[in-house]
Amino acid sequence: MTETPVLALEHVHHEVAGRTIVADLSLTVRSGECVAVTGPNGAGKTSLLRIAAGEVHPSRGRVLWNGTEAWRLPDWRLAAMRAVMSQSTAIGFSFPVADVVGLGFDGVGRRASPDLRRRAIARALEAADVFHLAARDVSTLSGGERQRVLFAKALAQLEAGSAEEQRRALLLDEPIASLDLSHQITLMQAVRRVADDGVAVVAVLHDLNLAAAFADRIVVVHDGRIAADGPPEATVTEAMLARVFGIVRRTATVGARAVPVVAPQFWEVPALRS
Ligand SMILES: Nc1ncnc2c1ncn2[C@@H]1O[C@H](COP(=O)(O)OP(=O)(O)OP(=O)(O)O)[C@@H](O)[C@H]1O
């Protein structure tokens, strides 16, 4: 018998003010899988992630967490099953960084011992490279530092959830958008480790090169539908890049790998050519 996916979206359809945002979309994610979701601006990626997280109820279709519909799960149970790092979450209050990360832990890990809590928070701070900022007021951080704190908060929640639930997921919306190059790589390495530890990971990423380097699967969303779903070498193709992103190759080679390197020196947008 096949294992129940950690997350399953079945024929999810979502409309806002009469406009279709997500159209009959089905997707499954299993334990240990790292799935990158990509696509043009406005394609529906954030909407898809919020629906998957159980934050938004779709107009039609079902969202299943470990086989149970999301809306049937009490909040604490859903929080133990999946941690979410949203796109540009505002932290509008003065709080030490360690306490913000602690909030991630406390929602789920109320029964944990103080020692376990302290160690989980320390591990999350380390993994996001914000340990040195633990005592800083979060409202004084740079954009990239704040993004790494939110990543640490999600990791702390995920670890707290391990006491309640084996089959968990980490959902990330553009987690590297504000990060410098080295932190993009270290965050993606941390994400990969989380997946290798058996957690199902779904990350919205615009950087197809990083997505191809770290994800097992790339799901390309276009106009609220899945335009491609498979391993990087099957999804990041010239045909997909032309069809979904409207870019075409302008040099003879695009890197020496099975997956083309998607960088401005190799590609162009014909309509914008001078
Ligand atoms: N509450 C809303 N009311 C009206 N339109 C909305 C609402 N939420 C999302 N949309 C629209 O739905 C579409 C999909 O939005 P979404 O944020 O999911 O896109 P995205 O793929 O994450 O885009 P980006 O890459 O720019 O972050 C967009 O056209 C957006 O304007």
Topology, please?
Blueprint lengths: L6 E10 L2 E11 L4 E5 L6 H9 L6 E6 L2 E2 L5 H7 E4 L11 H10 L7 H14 L15 H19 L7 E5 L7 H16 L3 E5 L3 H7 L2 E6 L2 E6 L1 H4 L2 H8 L2 E2 L17 E2 L6
Helix pairs in contact: 3-4, 3-5, 4-5
The chain binds adenosine-5'-triphosphate.
The site of adenosine-5'-triphosphate (ATP) has 11 residues, from helix 1.
How would you describe this protein?
This is Heme ABC transporter ATP-binding protein. Pfam families: ABC_tran. Belongs to the ABC transporter superfamily. It is a single chain. It contains 9 helices and 12 strands. It is an alpha/beta fold and 274 residues long. The chain has a 6-stranded mixed β-sheet with strand order 6-7-8-3-9-10, with helices on both faces. A 4-stranded antiparallel β-sheet has the order 2-1-4-5, with helices on one face. Helix 3 packs across helix 4, helix 3 packs parallel to helix 5 and helix 4 packs across helix 5. The protein is globular, with a radius of gyration of 19 Å. It starts with 6 loop residues before the first strand and ends in a 6-residue tail after the last strand. The mean pLDDT is 91. The structure holds adenosine-5'-triphosphate. Adenosine-5'-triphosphate binds next to helix 1.
